[in-house]
Amino acid sequence: MKNRGTLSADTVPHFTPGARLQYDKVRAAWIIQAPERYFELDAVATEIVKRIDGATSVEVIVGDLAALYNAPKNRIFSDVSAMLQDLFDKGVLAA
Amino acid sequence: MGIPPPLAMLAELSHRCPLKCPYCYNPLELSARSDELDTDTWLRVLHEAADLGILQVHFSGGEPAVRDDLEVLVEAADQLGIYTNLITSALLLGRNRIHDLAERGLQHIQISFQDVRPDEADDMAGYPGAHVIKVAAARRAAEVGLALTMNVVVTRRNIDSLEQIIEFALEIGARRLEIANVQYYGWALKNRAALMPTRAQIEKAMIIISSAETRLVGSLAIDYVTPDYYARRPKPCMGGWARKFMNVSPSGMVLPCHAAETIPGLEFESVLKRPLKDIWQQSKSFNLFRGLEWMVEPCRSCDQREIDWGGCRCQALALTGDAKNADPACEFSPYHGGMVKLAEAEASSPAFDLVYRGYSQASGEARN
C-alpha cells in the first residue's frame, strides 16, 4: 500500500514503466495504454493526464486547470486527486 | 452501426518452443517452421492491424524469440503506434537481446514461470535449468525499464505455493502477476487428470489472492484467471467472440481465439488471401458467434448474456458436444453438475504422468 494515501499538492506523478498516453486516431480519443489494458479518457481527464511528465507537481497541474476552466482551485484539486489516486491504484502512475 | 474495431491481436510468430509444458494452449497439430509467415507478410499484417484500430499486439507463440526478425517486428509495430507486448518463455533472450528489444520500443514483457521451486518448475517445463534462465531474464527486463508481468499457470502441483509465488513476483520486480488456472483444451485436456486442483486448494487460493490484492494495491496488479470447473458463472472468454480480439497463427490463419481451430466445421481465412479488416468484419467464422443471435437457452434469455457472452465456445464444444451451448462452467448449464463431478474425481485421482507437448506426439495423436 505504499502508494496509497500519499497523494498531496507536492506529489509529482509519473507514468510507471509500460504505461503511456497516446492519441488513437481510429477511435478519435486520448487513451492510456498499459500492460494488457487501456483506458479511454474524457476531455477533462485528458487535460489532467497530458500534464503528467514526471516534473510537474499536482499543485501546478491544479493551478493550470483552475485557470483553464476558470474554476476554484479546491474543487479542481478534489477532482484531480480523485482521478490520480485511481490511476495510482491501477499501477499506471507512481510518484 | 458498423462492427467495432478489435483492441488487440495475438501474433503467434511460431509454434516452435524450447519448452514442453503439458498445458500449452497451442493446438495438438503444431505448425512446422516451413509454414510460418515470412517477415514481409508480418510487416504487412502489422500495418493492416494499425489501420484497423488494433491498440496492442502480443507477440507470442510457441516462443516468439525463436524468430530472428522479432526485433524488426517489434520496432515496426511501435512505429505504427501499436503498444507492444512480448509473451515469452525467456529462454532465448540474452542480456543484449532484452536491452535491444526495449530500445526498439518494446513496452511490456510477460515471462512464464512454471513454479517458484526450481526443480518442480524445470520438471513442468520439460527443460532442465529453465527456471534460473527465466529469473535472470526477468531481472534484466526490470533493469532496462520494461514493464514486467510474471505469468504462472496453476495446477494441483504448484497451487499450494501461491504465497511464495506472490512474494517472488515482487522480488523479481514484476508489477503485474497473472495467476492462471489451466484452460482445459488441447494439450491441457490430455493432462487434465494430472493437473486438476482440488476444491480445497482453489478455496485456499482465493483467500490468499484476495488478501494480496488488497495489500498490494498500486504496487502489484494480480490478474486471476478463475478455474472454470469450480466456477458458478463462466468467464467472458476473449471478452466475447469477435468483439475485441483476433489471433493470427504462425501460418497466417486469422482466428477469433487461439483454440478456435478445435471447433469443427468452421472455416478460417488467411492473411495471405484476404485483408485483416475484411476478415474481421465479414468472415463467417467471426460472425458465427458474434453478438447474441447465435445463442440457445439458457444463454438466450439470460440477464448475464452481455456480461459473459455465454463463456467459452471451445469449452462448450469439448464438454457438451456443441459449441453453441452455454459454457458448462455456468451453473445454469445442464452439463454443469457433470463438469464439477468430473473435476472432483480427477483432482483426487492418482494420475501423475504428464504428456509433454511436442511435434512427434502431436502427429502421433493425430493418427489415432
How is the topology of this model organized?
The complex is a heterodimer of chains A (95) and B (368).
Chain A: E1 14-15, E2 20-24, E3 29-34, E4 37-40, H1 43-50, H2 58-69, H3 73-89, E5 93-94
Antiparallel strand pairs in A: 1-5, 2-3, 3-4
Helix pairs in contact in A: 2-3
Chain B: E1 8-12, H1 39-52, E2 56-60, H2 70-79, E3 83-88, H3 95-103, E4 108-113, H4 118-125, H5 130-143, E5 147-154, H6 162-171, E6 176-181, H7 187-190, H8 192-195, H9 199-215, E7 221-225, E8 245-248, E9 253-255, E10 269-270, H10 276-282, H11 284-288, H12 305-308, H13 313-320, H14 336-347, H15 359-366
Parallel strand pairs in B: 1-2, 1-8, 2-3, 3-4, 4-5, 5-6, 6-7
Antiparallel strand pairs in B: 8-9, 9-10
Which stretches of chain A are low in confidence, meaning pLDDT under 50 for 5 or more residues running? none
H-E order of chain B: EHEHEHEHHEHEHHHEEEEHHHHHH
| Largest interface, C-beta within 8 A | A-B, 24 and 28 residues
Mean pLDDT of chain A: 92
| Sheet of most strands of chain B | 10 strands, mixed
Give the percentage of residues in beta strands of chain A.
15-25%
Helix- and strand-based class of chain B?
alpha/beta
Into which percent range does the helicity of residues of chain A fall?
Answer: 25-40%
- Low-pLDDT residue intervals, each spanning 5 or more residues of chain B: 361-368
Care to count the β-strands of chain A? 5
Helix content of chain B: 25-40%
Distance between the termini of chain B: 47 Å
Distance between the termini of chain A: 13 Å
The Rg value of chain B, from CA coordinates, equals 20 Å
Give the oligomer, counting copies of the same chain as homo and different chains as hetero.
heterodimer
Q: How many H/I helical runs of chain A?
A: 3
The count of β-strands of chain B is 10
Major sheet attributes of chain A: 3 strands, antiparallel
